[in-house]
Amino acid sequence: xxxxxxxxxxxxxxxxxxxxxxxxxxxxxxxxxxxxxxxxxxxxxxxxxxxxxxxxxxxxxxxxxxx
Length: 67
What we know:
Layout: H1 5-22, H2 27-42, H3 45-56
């Protein structure tokens, strides 16, 4: 299942707001927990590993405006 552009925007905004609510000191913990919960729903180790590798590939350096 894939999302249309509007769905992607809504999910991105919701996730961004959740990251902000977690706070900088718990951001990494939140993201790891979120990933684990989503991996459980996927229930396919190879697909999860592929998603991790894809997310890491060409990962941009944060801009100064991101902080």
